[in-house]
């Protein structure tokens, strides 16, 4: 039977909110189960899903989720925030020669 990689990953990784510094770079990722927090300098993007089960694994995942969200909230509270992040305009699409023609 295949191993549940999401569960194995969360059991081996201790909850350490200091290893994920929100808004510090465009490369950092923290995963809680199958839920990923992707770091960016102007936003943190969440992808995936998370099942919080009623067991010790679910408790540990809930604590890791709370620690991650608390870290993000503290980073936001410590910043001088604009009313909204300005979105960069999308680049105009470029025409390319059809490689199949």
Automatic annotation (TrEMBL):
The lineage of its organism: Bacteria, Pseudomonadati, Pseudomonadota, Alphaproteobacteria, Hyphomicrobiales. Residues 1-12 have a biased composition (Basic and acidic residues). It comes from Methylobacterium oryzae. Residues 1-24, 82-101 are annotated as: Disordered. It comes from the Bacteria. This is Uncharacterized protein.
């Amino acid at each position: 039977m295949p191993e549940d990689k999401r569960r194995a990953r969360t059991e081996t990784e201790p909850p350490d909110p200091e290893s994920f510094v929100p808004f510090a770079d465009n490369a950092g990722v923290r995963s809680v189960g199958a839920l990923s927090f992707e770091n960016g300098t102007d936003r943190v993007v969440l992808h995936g899903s998370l099942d919080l089960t009623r067991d010790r694994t679910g408790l540990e995942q809930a604590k890791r989720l709370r620690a991650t969200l608390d870290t993000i909230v503290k980073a936001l509270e410590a910043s001088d925030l604009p009313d909204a992040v300005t979105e960069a305009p999308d680049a105009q699409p470029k025409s390319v020669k059809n490689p199949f023609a």
